[in-house]
Structures are given as C-alpha cells and as structure tokens.
Design brief:
Helices cover 75% and strands 0% of the residues.
Length: 99
C-alpha cells in the first residue's frame, strides 16, 4: 500500500471512529451554545498537536505505526468534537436529537 493510500485509510477510519463516538454516546456533548463553541474551537486547535506528536513518535516507531499512534487519535477527536457540536446546532434548529 502506498503512502497516500495509507493516509487516506487512516483519515477515513478516524472520521468513522469520530462519527461512531457521536452516534454511540448520544448523551455526551455540549448543552449550551458556549459548550458548542468550545467544541468547535477545540476541533480547530487539536489538529495542531499532530505534527509535534508525530515527530516524537517517529523517533521511536516506524512511519506507519507512528502515524497510526498519533495522527489517528487526533483526527478521531477532531471529527468527534465537530459531530458533537453539530448535533447541538441541529437541536437548536429544531431537528431531531437523541437527548
């Protein structure tokens, strides 16, 4: 598997895990607009952790496992935070929520 294909699989899997977290834990998430805004801010800031974590992991692991151990959880958390915040926004707009 080439590098681009591997990264595509990691990103897609992280997105699926993030969405699974949102679907599996319907009572977890922001209950206020401030909480939803915080989720969006964290989702914007957390990907900045990936490069330094990856740099440290590359000192101890081969490239494939280092990407899986650092980039995957960062992206999964980012997708989960976005999903949680969007679920709150949909609830505000009168859509169906699981709460």
């Amino acid at each position: 598997m080439g590098l681009h294909a591997y990264l595509l699989v990691v990103v897609a899997a992280a997105g699926l895990v993030g969405l699974w977290i949102v679907a599996r834990l319907p009572k977890v998430g922001p209950t206020t607009t401030r909480g939803a805004a915080l989720c969006f801010v964290l989702a914007w800031a957390i990907p900045g952790l990936a490069p330094p974590l990856l740099a440290v992991a590359l000192l101890h692991l081969p490239a494939g496992p280092a990407v899986l151990a650092t980039v995957f959880p960062v992206l999964a958390a980012t997708f989960a935070l976005i999903g949680l915040a969007l679920r709150y926004v949909v609830g505000l707009l009168g859509g169906h929520t699981a709460r």
